[in-house]
Amino acid sequence: MLDPSSLEVNPTNWFQHPVVQAWSRLHPKRVEPKSIVVVQEVKKGDAVSSVYRLNGMGPKGKSIIAKRYVKEYAHLERTIYEEVLPYLPVAGLKFYGFVDEPETEYGWLFLEDVGVGEFLYSIVEHRSLAARWLGLMHVSAPGIPAVFRLPDRGPTHYFAHLLQIRDLIQRNLGNPALNTNGLRLGNGRTGDPGTRSSGVIRSRRSSPTCEQRLVGH
User: Fold this and answer.
1) Which pTM value belongs to this model?
2) Is the Cβ–Cβ distance between 65 and 2 less than 8 Å?
3) Tens-level pLDDT at each residue, the chain (217 residues)
4) End-to-end distance of the chain based on CA atoms, in angstroms?
5) Which residues fall within 8 angstroms of residue 118, CB to CB, at 6 or more apart?
6) How far apart are CA 54 and CA 33, in angstroms?
C-alpha cells in the first residue's frame, strides 16, 4: 500500500529531478508538477526502489504514480501491466508507460493514481471485493501467453521458501536466547526434515497437470 505519510520533494528545480526527466521522455510537453511526493523508498542491498506521486502532472492535470525499480524487476512489471492485466476480466490501474533510465540499471513505470485509500481486512465488503478480484485473476491468467514468460511463482517456488525457512529454524535451535517455549515451538514446527519434505513432494508429483497462475503482489 502507498504510504500517505510521505515526504514532499524540495521544488528548487522540478525539471532536474529524475522522475520529471523520465516522465518528459514519455510526454515531451513541458508541464510543471504542483508537487512531488516521496511515497515509498526501499533499500535492498545496493539497490533502492522508489515510489513518487506527481501531483498535477498527468493527463488533464491528474496525479500519477511513478515507480523506479532495478530494470530486471521493472521490465517484469511492465510485462504485467502491458500484456497481462489488460486482458483479464478485472479492473486495473491505467498504465501510462515505461522508460529505461539512461546510464543506470533502473527503469521507470508510470501508473494511474487512485489515491491513498486503504484496504481494511476488518470490512467485509473489502474482503469480498479482494477475493473476487484475485479469484478472477487466477482463473483467467493461464490463457494469456505472456504469463508463461514470467518467473515461476507456483508451488515449487513457495515450497523452496518453506524449506529455506525450516532449515534456518533448525540451525538456530541451539541459540541460548531461546527459552523452553521457543524450543518446543521450533521443534514442533520443523519435525523430521526428511518425512515432511518427502510427503509434500509426493503430493505435488501426484498432480502434474497443475496450471500456472499469476500471483499478485
Assistant:
1) 0.70
2) yes
3) 444 445 666 666 777 888 999 999 998 887 788 888 999 899 988 889 999 999 988 888 899 999 999 999 999 999 999 999 999 988 888 999 999 999 999 999 999 998 877 888 899 999 999 999 889 888 888 888 888 888 877 788 888 888 898 888 888 777 777 666 655 555 555 555 454 554 444 444 444 444 455 555 4
4) 10
5) 1
6) 6
